């Protein structure tokens, strides 16, 4: 009796499964029948897209053009691709490859082209390009930060201090700090929190830079209406420095003396003077004091490495010259990624010890509505 009941149950289950499969086939048929026909612009992607025509046929054979297109040379590109390939590799054969996704994202960073423009070049819909950029930027941030923006060690900060002394005549300085507004499209339902003193929407990049224009640490994502000093105090790197967890070297004597002084950052008037923060004297204090004027000259000259770093960053990655029309959290990934890629490019220049591939051209007009200084308030 039990064998018959089990047999009936199995037969009933089989029929239910078959009915469910038939229902799925009917639903799929109804959905597919209503689906619009794919535009021939996209079906010809493999044969006519930029990846196949421009990159594979021409750029791969020309190193200079390759670097101009995606800002990295072939060795650097292959290195970056090897880090993120497992994260962005397609699941289906014939889908958009990891290499093409990286090329597309780097081109977006290099030019600031809209998704609609990249749509026509790569023969990929703008909606799917947005998903690709989001996926690639998240993977780049995850894999590049541990290599190019790690927590500095005490020995590294000592070496940076030596560079500041040798190059800029500022002793015991382990970095220069400054912030810049990065222009963005107004986020939905954000009110005025991203609205800055220059009357546009922005997010803030606060960075510590070494003597060779490389980023030591960055903080992104603060609202455009905030000032340097407030952002620094609430940032993760600011809290570590204030609490002694940033591996800052111990106090050391000034060159040629026995006077012990702590290691410090140099900033502008927006930052509050502190044990770990040095800034210039106010202008009315230096008018009749030559020693203070010399001090201000050296501090301001050394602090220019932040301006140089931001200038190089925006000139190489032109996405910073346009209002970035993506979500704020994705914009954070974008900014941190280009800071890591900037360090990659600076490392290559310093190792080769030659003329940098991207030289800052002072004759070219600077962006007037992006990458501008923060409001000078909050310091004391």
Automatic annotation (TrEMBL):
Q: What is the protein name stated in its UniProt record?
A: DDE Tnp4 domain-containing protein
Metal-binding: present as a keyword of the record?
yes
Q: Does the keyword Aminoacyl-tRNA synthetase apply?
A: no
A GO cellular component annotated for this chain's UniProt record is: nucleus
GO terms, molecular function: hydrolase activity; metal ion binding; nuclease activity
Q: Name the protein family.
A: Belongs to the HARBI1 family.
* Location of this chain's protein in the cell: Nucleus
Pfam families reported for this sequence: DDE_Tnp_4
Q: What is the protein's species of origin?
A: Euphydryas editha
Keyword tags: Hydrolase, Metal-binding, Nuclease, Nucleus
The DDE Tnp4 domain extends over 177-343
Required cofactors, per record?
Answer: a divalent metal cation
């Amino acid at each position: 009796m039990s064998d018959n009941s089990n047999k009936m149950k199995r037969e009933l289950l089989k029929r239910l499964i078959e009915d469910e499969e038939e229902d799925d086939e009917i639903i799929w048929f109804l959905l597919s029948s209503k689906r619009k026909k794919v535009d021939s612009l996209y079906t010809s992607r493999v044969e006519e897209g930029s990846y196949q025509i421009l990159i594979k046929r021409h750029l791969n054979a020309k190193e200079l053009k390759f670097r101009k297109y995606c800002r990295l040379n072939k060795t650097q590109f292959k290195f970056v691709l090897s880090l993120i390939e497992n994260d962005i590799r397609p699941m289906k054969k014939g889908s958009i490859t990891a290499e093409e996704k990286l090329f597309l994202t780097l081109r977006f960073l290099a030019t600031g082209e809209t998704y609609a423009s990249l749509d026509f070049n790569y023969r990929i819909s703008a909606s799917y390009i947005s998903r690709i950029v989001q996926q690639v930027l998240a993977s780049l941030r995850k894999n590049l930060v541990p290599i190019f923006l790690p927590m500095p060690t005490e020995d590294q900060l000592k070496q940076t201090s030596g560079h500041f002394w040798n190059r800029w005549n500022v002793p015991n300085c382990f970095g220069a700090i400054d912030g810049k507004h990065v222009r963005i499209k107004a986020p939905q339902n954000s009110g005025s929190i991203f609205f800055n003193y220059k009357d546009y929407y922005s997010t803030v990049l606060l960075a510590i830079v070494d003597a060779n224009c490389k980023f030591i640490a960055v903080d992104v994502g603060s609202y455009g209406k905030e000032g340097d000093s407030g952002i620094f105090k609430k940032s993760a790197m600011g809290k570590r420095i204030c609490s002694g967890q940033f591996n800052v070297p111990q106090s050391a004597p000034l060159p040629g003396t026995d006077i012990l002084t702590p290691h410090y950052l140099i900033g502008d008037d927006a930052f509050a003077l502190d044990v770990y923060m040095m800034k210039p004297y106010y202008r009315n204090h230096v008018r009749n004091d030559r020693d203070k004027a010399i001090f201000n000259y050296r501090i301001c000259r050394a602090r220019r490495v932040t301006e140089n770093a931001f200038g190089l960053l925006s000139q190489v990655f032109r996405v910073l010259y346009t209002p970035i029309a993506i979500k704020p959290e994705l914009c954070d990934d974008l900014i941190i990624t280009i800071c890591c890629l900037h360090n990659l490019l600076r490392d290559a220049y310093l190792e080769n010890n030659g003329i940098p591939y991207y030289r800052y051209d002072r004759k070219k007009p600077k962006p007037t509505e992006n990458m501008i200084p923060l409001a000078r308030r909050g310091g004391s």
